[in-house]
């Protein structure tokens, strides 16, 4: 699935209404009771860096009447600029500068390769939630790093019954 498809799915799941989904370029408008915005996906970070202002201005021009008529949304107009490809850290640094530009819209400018990264990029638009970063498969390794126990004790915790776990912990203390 592309970063655009992931972002569309995430926004829909969060309750946003989406319209004018176009390909190419990959562009969609999204809206709920308090937020309005445009989602634009670019083929790479260089294109994003060269085009984001033009795309923002295009969105603002096309939606000027709706924006003026939505007083409650006036402070919550977003442009979301996403890509899944970048060349170097210099491009990543330039993306963060886009987000620091508060003229016209609030901006999200990110590289998102996976669905989890797309969720992280869109967090400012999503309802408050607890977000666990890390797969369940990583749990044994995460426990080994977090707990100050012998490796065989952690293995017991992960594989044995509660009585055996209690016995092992008592032996260690």
Note down, in words, how this protein is organized.
The protein is of the alpha/beta class and 173 residues long. The protein has two domains: 123 residues; 37 residues, no CATH class. 47% of the residues lie in helices and 18% in strands. The chain is built from eight helices and five strands; from the N terminus they run H-E-E-E-H-H-E-H-E-H-H-H-H. A five-stranded mixed beta sheet has the order 1-2-3-4-5, with helices on both faces. Helix 2 packs parallel to helix 4. The chain is elongated, with a radius of gyration of 22 Å. The termini are far apart. The model has no long low-confidence stretch (mean pLDDT 86).
Question: Any chance you could write out the topology, listing elements then pairs?
Answer:
Elements lengths: L2 H11 L3 E6 L3 E6 L4 E7 L2 H18 L1 H6 L7 E7 L5 H11 L6 E6 L3 H8 L16 H8 L4 H9 L2 H11 L1
Parallel strand pairs: 3-4, 4-5
Antiparallel strand pairs: 1-2, 2-3
Helix pairs in contact: 1-5, 2-4
Series of secondary-structure elements, N-terminal to C-terminal? HEEEHHEHEHHHH
- The biggest beta sheet, please? 5 strands, mixed
| Outline type | elongated
> Share of helix among residues?
40-55%
**Category by helix and strand content:** alpha/beta
Low-confidence parts = none
Report strand %.
15-25%
Distance between the termini: 49 Å
Q: Radius of gyration from the CA trace?
A: 22 Å
Number of helices: 8
Biggest sheet: strands side by side, in what order?
1-2-3-4-5
According to DSSP, the number of beta strands is 5
Average pLDDT score: 86
Number of domains: 2
């Amino acid at each position: 699935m592309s970063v655009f498809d992931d972002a569309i799915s995430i926004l829909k799941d969060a309750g946003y209404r989406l319209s004018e989904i176009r390909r190419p370029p990959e562009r969609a408008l999204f809206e709920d009771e308090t937020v309005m915005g445009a989602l634009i996906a670019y083929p790479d970070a260089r294109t994003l860096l060269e085009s984001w202002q033009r795309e923002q201005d295009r969105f603002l021009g096309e939606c000027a009447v709706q924006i003026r008529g939505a007083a409650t949304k006036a402070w919550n107009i977003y442009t979301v600029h996403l890509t899944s490809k970048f060349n170097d850290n210099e491009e990543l640094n330039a993306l963060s500068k886009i987000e620091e530009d508060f003229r016209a819209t609030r901006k999200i400018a990110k590289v998102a390769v996976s669905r989890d990264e797309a969720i992280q990029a869109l967090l400012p638009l999503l309802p408050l939630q607890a977000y666990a970063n890390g797969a369940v498969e990583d749990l044994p390794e995460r426990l080994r790093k977090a707990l100050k126990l012998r490796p065989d004790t952690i293995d017991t915790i992960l594989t044995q019954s509660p009585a055996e776990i209690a016995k092992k912990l008592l032996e260690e203390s």
